[in-house]
Specification:
Lipocalin, disordered N terminus, single chain, mainly beta
Length: 304
């Protein structure tokens, strides 16, 4: 474990410095994931919506990660809305509305046969993100009542957030692959997490994958072998959460220390289009939350 921590420190330093050969880099691919509870249980609440996009820069992609940290760089941006159960008259001990916007850089590499991702993001919260005003505008455009909970939202803040994940792939015959992983984050929310993902089918085996923050689903950021077909994905994880800027200790909603996620999805690749759709069950995040929720994830790519 000590060696792994040292490797993460070196990786973060190299990623921040960006190697001198950066002029030879090319864009290897783009990945994105749209998440919304309208694609899940269709209830506008809690982890209600988000969008995460990744741009991958590097020298080449041959289906496997390089062993040198910093050769592959992921520039990541995301926006997310977290809301109480009701946007007009929420229960008195529900969570507060929160808007988040983040920008960061991560690097992925192979360490002794393990897939490692490490990086940092700046996470902005509050009205400064402009997300709450955008939601107001959308509600006005479609004739919905203006959300009043926005006036009591989590305030402006900037949170440097560091994230690391280590996973290892195990082939289960010719048609399935299991990838257990551990993950840690410190920043806007601080936690440690352990889980796994099972892929049934050969599609996407040599793609470069990135994990969506909200749903836990992994999405393709760089395409490997351009095969057509279908793969099915199952996964889950458990986390111990130490603190969260979204659930402040002086608030009415008290942080639940243990969180779990279960997910399932399907990835289809055609000749000129690909589609991923998945559903994730998210357990309670605060003690007063009456139940978990279902959030859908969608990734659609078209080539013309």
């Amino acid at each position: 474990m000590l060696n792994f921590v040292k490797t993460l420190v070196i990786a973060a330093s190299l990623a921040a410095a960006v190697p001198a050969q950066a002029e030879d880099r090319v864009t290897l691919g783009w990945g994105r994931m749209f998440s919304n509870d309208a694609l899940g249980d269709q209830k506008d609440r809690w982890r209600t919506g988000g969008y995460q996009v990744s741009r991958i820069r590097g020298y080449s992609w041959d289906g496997s990660l390089p062993t040198t940290p910093g050769e592959i760089l992921e520039f990541r941006a995301s926006a997310q809305i977290v809301a109480p159960e009701d946007l007009i008259s929420p229960p008195p001990q529900d969570r507060r509305y929160a808007a988040m916007l983040s920008f960061g850089m991560h690097t992925q590499f192979d360490w002794r046969g393990n897939d490692v991702s490490v990086g940092a993001d700046l996470v902005f919260t509050g009205p400064q993100t402009g997300i709450s005003n955008f939601q107001k505008w959308i509600h006005n455009m479609v004739g919905l009542e203006e959300p009043t909970v926005i006036d009591q939202q989590i305030g402006n803040g900037i949170y440097p957030t560091f994230e690391a994940e280590l996973g290892r792939k195990f082939a289960l015959g010719n048609r399935a692959e299991l990838r257990p992983f551990v993950q840690a984050q410190a920043g806007v929310e601080s936690f440690v997490r352990i889980g796994g993902d099972l892929v049934i089918g050969t599609l996407g085996r040599d793609d470069l994958m990135v994990r969506d923050t909200t749903t836990g689903q992994r999405y393709r950021a760089v395409q490997g072998t351009q095969n057509q077909g279908v793969s099915f994905i199952l996964g889950g994880d458990m986390a111990r959460v130490f603190d969260s800027a979204l659930l402040p200790s002086n608030g009415d909603a008290t942080l639940t220390e243990d969180r779990s996620r279960l997910r399932a999805g399907v990835h289809w690749q055609g000749e000129k289009a690909s589609l991923f759709y998945g559903v994730s069950y998210l357990s309670k995040e605060f003690d007063q939350q009456p139940e978990g929720q279902l959030v859908g994830g969608l990734n659609l790519n078209l080539k013309f």
